[in-house]
Automatic annotation (TrEMBL):
Keywords tagged on the record: DNA-binding, Phosphoprotein, Transcription, Transcription regulation
Alphabetized InterPro entries for the sequence: CdaR_GGDEF, CheY-like_superfamily, Homeodomain-like_sf, HTH_AraC, HTH_AraC-typ_CS, Sig_transdc_resp-reg_receiver
HTH araC/xylS-type domain mapped to chain residues: 430-528
Organism: Blautia intestinalis
PROSITE patterns named in the record: HTH_ARAC_FAMILY_1, HTH_ARAC_FAMILY_2, RESPONSE_REGULATORY
Protein name (Swiss-Prot/TrEMBL): Stage 0 sporulation protein A homolog
Sequence ranges assigned to domain Response regulatory in this UniProt record: 3-120
Entry-linked Gene3D superfamilies: 3.40.50.2300, Homeodomain-like (1.10.10.60)
Keyword Transferase: no
Superkingdom of this protein's organism: Bacteria
Entry annotated with the keyword Transcription regulation: yes
Any matching Pfam family: Response_reg
Length: 531
């Protein structure tokens, strides 16, 4: 049904409109009328018209003023201006209200019907658009929890960080820092610990959706999947200028969250909270949140509220240490060497009199670095591989020998990681290129090819362009157009067939793409170069 409001100071005009619309559209349209600008505004508030036919010249509030008033509470109504010839130019100049059409009096019956049909079509289009948006929103409500879970997993378990960046963009998360909360659930408390009987995890799947909704009503966050009797939550946030005050507020909000959860769900809850860290260090914040839960019997515990075990008791260059291993994991040799030299200089400036202490730190870093390389799949490990490390460290007669050994071992680990990444990238790119060359005539997509090489589309796009100098679409298009050229020169192959065999089922689209790539249409190319 469509609601149509007609405003005109001439009763004959109103009756004519009603009669024509009723005769042409029957009960499909409901028509209300008004003779003044004030009346049409008041009726529009309760009638909520889809379409308004508005005369410009009416007593009191004129048509332009009335439309402006209606627009304040009805942003979707379609306006059709009705005007006599002597007012028409004035109407066109004065109205900036998104008017659909101007109708000049006298209006023949056919023109009224045509205007109503046009309006109905536009109303239908708007309704369909709103319906489609709602359907998309419903789908997003299903997809977003999956994306959030993938985002949390990629951060906490050191999966592809490029994938984490991709998920972060999808979720529109702007902060580059955040912290991890672990929400633990169970059936009851025993000595301050939650008891989670067998089957509690399965039961938790039933109330996971409600838990997620409640948590997100308290925190702007990404909620992970259930892991045993815990749910990891990543809360993006900026670095605070008042960390103590914000920590107090955070603990209080978490207590309120637990009260809300326990009031709605038949379970008991505890929360552990880690420190604010960079996104690529969320794994550390997760471990801190876990340590907070295990190190206290409180229902809400922040890692900063535990005793300060594991904290450096001196001016240790923590950020420098982070940079060394970040560059090592990224395979950035030059940057890694620079940070290692600066760190070695720092050790000399503070502990030059204690060479054994520096030897120990060098050994710690080398073993740590090789472990990172092992975890990246870049090196193998055997129990006896490092049997001489301690002897070599002790045999270094001076700091320059020790520095050289330190740099050599760390650079080897960094190069192994870099080479492994490059080898994988080359392998991925070659495999993808071969697949495209063999399947260009099919309807293949980025998702198809990234799935073939078992890499996320975002990361695949990145490494494919790094290796080939072209993105996926550019490369596919180049292959297809080259094949189309080969086919077009043959006299027994039509332009349409050449398009289909090179992967373009739509002749018009094929023609546009071909011209864009060659500055010639397919027919021009065939005429010029055909056999």
């Amino acid at each position: 049904m469509y609601r149509i409001l007609v405003a005109d100071d001439e009763g004959i005009m109103l009756e004519a409109f009603k009669s024509v619309i009723a005769g042409a559209f029957g009960e499909e349209c409901v028509v209300e009328t008004a003779k003044t600008g004030r009346a049409v505004t008041e009726i529009a508030e309760t009638f909520h018209p889809d379409v308004v036919f508005m005369d410009i010249h009416m007593p009191g509030i004129n048509g332009i003023q009335a439309m402006r008033e209606i627009r304040k509470f009805n942003t979707t109504a379609l306006f059709y201006v009705v005007s006599a010839y002597d007012k028409f130019d004035y109407a066109k100049e004065a109205i900036d209200l998104g008017v659909e059409r101007y109708l000049t009096k006298p209006i023949p019956r056919a023109k009224i019907i045509a205007a109503v049909e046009e309006a109905i079509g536009k109303v239908d289009a708007k309704r369909n658009q709103r319906s489609n948006l709602l359907k998309i929103q419903e789908k997003l409500e299903t997809v977003i929890p999956v994306v959030e879970s993938s985002f949390v997993g990629s951060l906490l378990f050191q999966q592809e960080m490029q994938a984490a960046d991709y998920y972060q963009q999808l979720l529109d998360i702007e902060d580059s820092q955040g912290y991890v909360m672990i929400l633990q659930f169970g059936q009851s408390y025993e000595n301050g610990r939650l008891v989670s009987p067998i089957g509690m995890n399965v039961k938790a799947q039933e109330f996971y959706g409600e838990i997620r909704d409640i948590v997100k009503s308290y925190f702007s966050c990404a909620v992970g999947s259930i892991m045993s009797n815990r749910i990891p939550i990543v809360v993006p946030c900026p670095i605070s200028a008042k960390p103590y005050e914000e920590r107090i507020d955070l603990v209080e909000s978490s207590r309120s969250l637990i009260s809300k959860l326990e009031g709605r769900i038949e379970a008991k809850f505890r929360i552990g909270i880690g420190r604010v860290r960079e996104m690529q260090e969320m794994e550390r914040s997760y471990r801190e949140a876990l340590r907070a839960l295990n190190g206290s019997k409180s229902r809400v515990i922040h890692i900063e509220d535990l005793s300060q075990n594991g904290v450096y008791d001196e001016e240790f260059p923590v950020e420098m240490e982070k940079s060394i291993f970040r560059y090592l994991e990224e395979g950035k040799e030059k940057e890694c060497v620079q940070e290692m030299n600066e760190f070695f200089d720092w050790m000399l400036a503070h502990y030059a009199e204690d060479m054994n202490n520096i030897r120990l730190k060098v050994l710690e870093y080398i073993i740590w670095g090789e472990k990172k390389a092992f975890e990246a799949g870049a090196v193998n490990y055997g129990f006896s591989y490092r049997r001489d490390y301690l002897d070599v460290a002790m045999a270094c007669k001076n700091y320059e020998e020790l520095r050289k050994w330190f740099l050599d071992k760390m650079v080897n680990a960094c190069r192994a990681i870099r080479d492994q990444k490059e080898e994988r990238s080359n392998s991925v790119a070659k495999k993808a290129m071969l697949y495209i060359q063999e399947n260009y005539s099919k309807d293949i997509s980025l998702d198809d090819v990234s799935g073939l090489v078992n890499i996320s589309p975002y990361y695949f796009s990145k490494i494919f362009k790094e290796e080939t100098g072209e993105n996926f679409i550019e490369y596919l298009t180049k292959i297809r157009i080259e094949k189309a050229k080969e086919l077009l020169v043959k006299p027994d192959i039509s332009i349409k067939e050449a398009g289909i065999r090179s992967g373009y089922t739509d002749p018009n689209y094929f023609s546009r793409i071909f011209k864009k790539q060659t500055d010639m249409t397919p027919s021009e190319y065939k005429t010029r170069y055909g056999e």
